[in-house]
Amino acid sequence: MTAPDTVRRYIETGLALGRHVDGLVDAYYGPPDLADRAAAGPAVPPARIAADARRLLADLEGDTGLAPGRRHWLAAQVRGLHTTAARLAGEPVRYSDEVEACYGVRPTRVSEDDLAAAHRALDEVLPGDGPLRDRFIAWREAQAVPVDRLRGALGSLAEDLRARTDELFGLPEGERVDFELVTDQPWSGFNYYLGGLRSRVAINVDLPVLSTVLAHLVAHESYPGHHTEHTRKEVGLVRRRNHLEETIFLVGTPQCLLAEGLADLGLEIVVGEHPEPVVAEHLRPLGIPYDDEIAGRVRHAGEALGGVRTNLCLMIHEDGAPVDAAVAYAERWALLPRNRAEKMVQFLTDPTWRAYTTCYVEGLALCRRWVGGDPVRFERLITEQLTPADLAA
User: H helices of 93-187, where?
Assistant: First the structure.
């Protein structure tokens, strides 16, 4: 397969920038010669990559050989790459401006009044007496999955979610996910898409994995989340329509915001708004502690606490708050034990992922509003080239 000039240059820009940012190229299964050329010789300086991206944006506007929607998608992607390259070249970029240019939405602080209201709601549904944070931590940590039972739980949930996803949307023949347990990573789970309809999903066990998030984690990384999106787009956009730009997945682009938003939304789409009883059917036979009745109440009451991550990012990257202050804020407002608060701040300060948190917070809200519970709309997210602007229109 061959790519139009602007598509080829987009792939080359992403590969070149990936030599400066570890993990920026999240996945690539495109033409090997492009990857070989990008890896050969010294890395292209960021200032030159930024200049190349500016020229590519201008050329995309006049590329009448591409459909308007495809040009719009590519231009949004290139703006993100240009912003990252310019920042690496030393151009001053305010954090909020960086997030907006890369991901297509602007981060907004969550009022501490709203966080306090979530605390009050949690206080009403959590069992026991005493300070809320102590009770919340005790309840959450009591839901830890023993490591020796984790693989069985992952397999059981993935099998069920795969069947539900296939029934609703269809899965390509021959697709496959392999799970592995890893350590020493800033994230809780990661999908390494290998191309050829295969994914390797890594689950981080630096901290105990909680049964209350396990089904969401499996849905997010595999069915109907990242793996499903990658495979459907490989078949529908790459193989059938020769959209080779889909063979590269790049951090710092609007592609990520929609990918994380739909992945976070996936469990409620394929199982329903109250998945806890279904999850219990998988975990209890394995002897894994899971309080489904309280888990549902806690999830609903505490959903607003996800916004703590945005507040932390703005505190750290715009207000200049030190790491210790950020960890203390996470302990207080996200009701986390210190080790989990430190892990959260580690992710938010990682050079690759510092702006990425918006993809989860704003991505879920945007996708949920646009989908409105309609599986047909969700299927569009996993099969079409859409941008945050398309969903907000």
Answer: 95-103, 112-125, 132-141, 147-169
